[in-house]
Amino acid sequence: MKRPAANMSSDTKLATKLARMLAGGTMIYPNPVETEIEKEKHVFIEDKDNLFVLRSAAGRSATELENSVLKKLQHAQSIRKMYLYPVPGSDDREPAFDFANFSKLVSKYLPKVSELFVQHMLVKNFELKAWPQLSKLTLIDPQCKDQKWSLELENLEELVMENHSPPVKSFASSLLHCPKIRMFFAHKYWADESLPSLYLPSCTDFTFRRGDCVDKLTLYLPRVKELNLDANYDLRVLKFLKQGHASQAEWNLPTQAKQSNFSLSCQNALLGQQARQELLGSGRLLNGIEAGSEDDSMGTDMEDEEEEDLDEDEDDLDTLGPHLLGRQVRVMRLKSRKDLVGKEGLSINEVYGMSESCGGATLSTQSAHLWGSCGFPVDGVEVKVFKVDATDINKKTECPRTPSLDDNHEDYQGEICFRGRQIMMGYLAQPDFGPEHVKSIEKKTAEAIDAEGWMHSGDKGMMTASGMLKITGRFKELIIGDGGENIAPVPIEDHIKASCDGINEVMMVGDKRKYNVALITLKAVGANGEVPGTDDLDAGAKRVNPDVTTISAALDDKVWIEAVTKAVTSANSNGKICPNNAFKVQKFMILPTNFSEEQGFLTPTKKLKRPIVEKAFIKQVDQMYASKETYVRYQP
After folding, report:
1. Which residues share a beta bridge with 516?
2. Are residues 457 and 485 in the same domain?
3. How far apart are CA 324 and CA 318, in angstroms?
């Protein structure tokens, strides 16, 4: 029996394997999947989610693509991701793929495709438009044979370009037609002329890395949270635009509404004096520190003498050398002078451990550093993450390792445990206190160190495939949902706080309940954690609505309620921290005062005493669960 032509077949298993390798960042060359694809001479492969077009012979134009691929698909109605992915071995002499009418045809045959991936191929007439379902575009080294490059994608949210340099004017004008881009990533963009202004009114995560011959960046980024300028060796001028482009009027923010907090990475970047001064003087990075009075809690964690030393050269990076070279800057919501250390350009390398492990167990270093990770285990220390039985710590199973720090799937998370000669022998009892005391201390030791010598930290975390550790929560802080879900509240609470400049604290409640609610406090004058402060909003909080100056007025203010609602909605819509509805905050209440150590709501290290806070506000919590509104007004 004659075998059907191999190049017309579709192999579901190969498509699934290849998609997993790309998604997990585990692609190596050569690899057995691509070797098998090349051997079988596949033109395309597909599964229910992914389509790989493997040879430019599959279509030198959209029409040929239609005949050789699109009309032959088995999963056209379910495919979500499309890859133009010539495998190694494809004939490089084949003509460029013509993108004319490409968007129209793909939308017709693949109605659910929302992600397009174009890699290592010659292209011409590169235009993508009238494709409302496309939300992510990844371009890895496509070679443009002409100067035609255009995007008009009204719902594009993520744009990734690696080793790809579209014509500067076409590139800048295309961004004006993609106003919803929230994640922009460019690596190795080579510019033969000056880049025009880049307008990204919705972008929260902006990376421009290895901009070859790029000496000037002019950016409109009113919502940016993460700014990465690593390895820009020629960047002399950096400018943040205060006004958006007229064509994007409905997406542009007024000056008073712009976010001013963002994290900056400029590792191995040679920034010119003007670029450094723009970062320091824009007010966006400093977030009001120049005035020195917007956050009343600043200065409580250092001695006065140390504060004066910082104040003298508060806005001067010249003491660190002529360039920001090999340094990292991390600026977050500022609560103490310690945060200024990061602002001043020093590297901050996280360390993780506990007294029971004689201090540090993992450490980030200059050569091995990822934000969000606590680094690798130090020499002589074993660190693993286990799923531990709730009643017996000796019953445990090691968790699989996450493919990336951003993948917070529950399967990868468990209790962080240490083992090594640095682990304590046990907690020390005082025999003079009697046998009951000794017995209780022995029990505590048995609950901390298992039979195999693993010290159980009580912290929730995960490890990457390379062995870097990330802390995701504390088991004592976990909310157990009505359906048994383990919900880590801290990432959700932090996201809400970061999304609204006027919010001071957020505490989720929802243990053994059908859904989660949140108690929220606002930044106030005098609220430093030790005392609750006054009813007057601080300068940072007043930016939410300059006409409202007190917490009591904010409780009934539509602008404030809308701002906090948007912050909660932003957290709920973030799939990394809220993978399903059980994690979301369904209702919230703004409290008339702040949590403090004086009230017994915070520890001396300013950590929330969650059970005590919930008990103190149980009446208000019950009011939220009884109400049908998202925002429930505080009632004493």
Report:
1. 585
2. no
3. 9
375 φ/ψ sector (left φ>0, alpha ψ -120 to 50, else beta): left
CATH number, position 560: 3.30.300.30
Confidence at 157, pLDDT banded by 50, 70, 90: very high
Same domain, 467 and 484: no
Banded model confidence at residue 320, pLDDT cuts 50, 70, 90: very low
- At position 30, the amino acid (one-letter code) is P
Same domain, 435 and 471: yes
pLDDT for the residue 25: 54
- 80 pLDDT more than 50: yes
User: Which residue segment(s) compose the domain that 447 sits in?
Assistant: 375-475
Distance CA 633, CA 556 (A): 8
pLDDT in tens, 51-68: 988 865 455 677 888 888
pLDDT-based confidence at 309, cuts 50/70/90? very low
Distances (CA, A) of 603 to 356, 359, 596, 599: 20, 21, 8, 10
Q: 386 and 452, same structural domain?
A: yes
* Residue positions counted in the chain: 636
User: Is the model's pLDDT at 586 over the cut of 90?
Assistant: yes
**Sheet bearing 122-124, strands edge to edge:** 97-98, 122-124, 143-144
Residues 554 and 612 both lie in one domain:
yes
Single pTM value for the model? 0.48
Contacts 24+ apart (CB under 8 A), 132-137: 133/107, 134/103, 136/160
d(CA 79, CA 15): 11
At 441, which CATH number? 2.30.38.10
Residues contacting residue 482 through CB under 8 Å, at least 6 positions apart: 512, 513, 514, 515, 582
Let me know whether 31 and 138 are in one domain.
Answer: yes
How many separate domains does the chain show? Answer: 3
* Structural domain contains residue 264: no
Average confidence (pLDDT) over 255-269: 70
Interval 507-535 mean pLDDT: 92
Q: Measured on CA atoms in the order 303, 309, 315, 317, is the torsion positive or negative?
A: negative
Give yes or no: residues 486 and 591 share one domain.
Answer: yes
Q: Checking phi first, is residue 429 left (phi over 0); if not, alpha (psi -120 to 50) or beta?
A: beta
In a domain, 216, yes or no: no
Please check the confidence at residue 324 and state whether its pLDDT lies above 70.
no
DSSP state of 130: S
- Among 457, 475, 493, identify where a domain stops: 475
